[in-house]
Amino acid sequence: MSRFLLALFFVMVAARGAAARPEFFVFDNGVGRGSWTPEQQAQTLKDLGYDGISYNYTTPADLGRWQQAFGAVGLKIYGLYVHTYIDRPEAFDARLPEAIALLKGTPTVLWITVQKPKVASPEDEAKAVRVVQQVADLAKAHGVQVALYGHAGFYVEHGEDSLRVVTKANRPNLGATLNLCHEFMSGVGDRLDSTLKAVAPKATRVSINGADLASKTWIMRLDQGDFDLVAYLTTLKAAGYDGPIGLQAYNVPGDVRENLAANIATWRRITSQLEDRGAPATAHNVLTAEEQAAGWRLLFDGTTTTGWKGFRKPAFPAQGWVVEDGTLKGLGTKGGDIITTAAFDDFEFQWDWRLSFRGNSGVKYFVDEQRGNSGGAIGHEYQTIDDDNYTAMTLNALQKTGAWYDVLPPTKIAARPVGEWNTSRLVVKGTTVEHWLNGELVLRYDITSPQAAEGIAKSKFKDVVGYADKIRTPILLQDHDTVVWFRNLKIRTLR
Hints:
single chain, TIM Barrel, Jelly Rolls, 2 domains, 8-stranded parallel β-barrel, 12 helices, about 25% strand, disordered N terminus
């Protein structure tokens, strides 16, 4: 296959994966609400890869400015969050009809709450239904959809409340909402599965966030907490919801842009896992008949750790690495590097890898378990790292993805955004080594060349005896204290 066709193949595969993913937007409470300009919000979300935003309604004039800013960069406003009241003479802001008119022909959903009255009465349910109908009817005249937002402490608190009122209101442009944090905050998180199955088919909008059940922290970054968002979203889709997903970010501590970067990276990883779980069982960790005929063999079967062991250890690590969803997953908990039990001379090795936010790992070769390795396994390293977000140190070109770590830089940047799967190839033949990434040749070097000698002399490996030598080698997967996934590890001997 030509390099052009190979590159085209990788582009087509990536495009097919991206097309199946839900659109992802963030609440304005996670994008500098009150301190960032709409233009800054829009450009930042565009740069990071979000699909858009949901705003808290203020005035029609503000809405017009938001629409202009997001339209200019090709992003959407997915929701306009509006409060309604059942115990006030005016059930909602008098300027709301003007704002609704501005939503005509846009994808923006009017995301309404129903506040709890100061004094409860038997008529509250009927009042709530009438207010929701009133807003829905105003919106319908302009072709605008309405979603009923459940909020802990309000009259409509959670998904079941939303579905109940929506069903009674019975308007064609009206849908329910599932907001993960408010399910827990309103005390009904223990029946989340049944709520999902009931509400999902009628839902117009859904919001998620990281959550920690152990500490009862209900709003966190997506990469934080112990709640299984992959399982949650799998159930949500199976129950019938396939619309946009919003990110709740209320009061999450930390730098705004850093949080946004962490969340979008984790979203990519989550959606990648959703795609993996929905793929046929034979999609990964198998060889085609053509590959078998060409001499390829698997180094990982997708279910066991056969053929692997800990570096300088007799067996596979008891902790720190697991087999999960057809991947070899490094947990970043000091399980140590792992290596193949087989060793190779001239070979072509191909693998898929995915990093977590700020992740760091690599594949090492020309590795010798016997020489001094006190600071970690010594060998040539195909570097894989979160180039954009890694903060443990400031990265130079020698430390970026595709490099011969600390010796020679990649000639081009070809890594996908963190959280996505990448495909790499390592080719060793004679004294020539090639690093490939997503169909692109990013580095070629000759071990015996002046270029290699100069790079080694300037590196931290300059005093390692035999570092420049080509030796028979196992394949090493690095544990660098961050979460990393590997799959489709295969190799063939070159003659």
